[in-house]
Design brief:
By secondary structure, this protein is mainly α. It has one domain (8-104). 43% of the residues lie in helices and 7% in strands. It contains three helices and two strands; from the N terminus they run αβαβα. A two-stranded parallel sheet has the order 1-2. β1, α2 (48-56) and β2 (63-66) form a beta-alpha-beta unit. α1 crosses α2. It starts with 19 loop residues before the first helix and ends with a helix.
Length: 108
C-alpha cells in the first residue's frame, strides 16, 4: 500500500484478532458507524467465502480480492500438495458450517 502512494497515517493495522470473525468485528469497531461504504477484503481463494460472510455479519458488502489460488493437477500418483489442498478445503467447509451454526444460535 505504501509503495502505491497510500500515506502511512491513512493505514490502521488490526492485529488483535485470532480468527476471521474477530477480525471482522475489530475492523467494524475501528471504522465505526460512519464508515465508507467501500470495503476491500484480501485473502486467499479458499478462505474468501468465510471472510465475506464474517464482514457481512457486521453490515458490510466487501469487495473480494484474492491473494492466491491453490491449483491441483491430475497426476498418476498422489502428491502431498493435493492432500494439503484437500485438508484446507475440508477445514473451510467445517468452518463455514460452524459459522452458520453460531450465527443461527446468535453467538456471532
Amino acid at each position: 500500500m505504501l509503495a502505491r502512494g497510500v500515506e502511512p497515517g491513512d493505514l490502521v493495522r488490526e492485529n488483535r484478532s485470532l480468527n476471521t470473525y474477530q477480525n471482522a468485528r475489530n475492523v467494524a469497531a475501528i471504522l465505526g458507524p460512519a464508515h465508507d461504504s467501500r470495503l476491500i477484503v484480501v485473502t486467499s481463494a479458499y478462505h474468501m467465502r468465510r471472510s465475506l460472510r464474517a464482514f457481512e455479519a457486521f453490515g458490510y458488502a466487501p469487495e473480494p480480492y484474492v491473494s492466491d489460488v491453490r491449483r491441483n493437477r491430475t497426476t498418476l500418483f498422489p502428491r502431498f500438495r493435493s492432500f494439503k489442498n484437500s485438508e484446507l478445503a475440508a477445514h473451510e467447509l467445517v468452518e463455514l458450517a460452524r459459522f452458520d451454526v453460531y450465527r443461527w444460535l446468535h453467538l456471532y
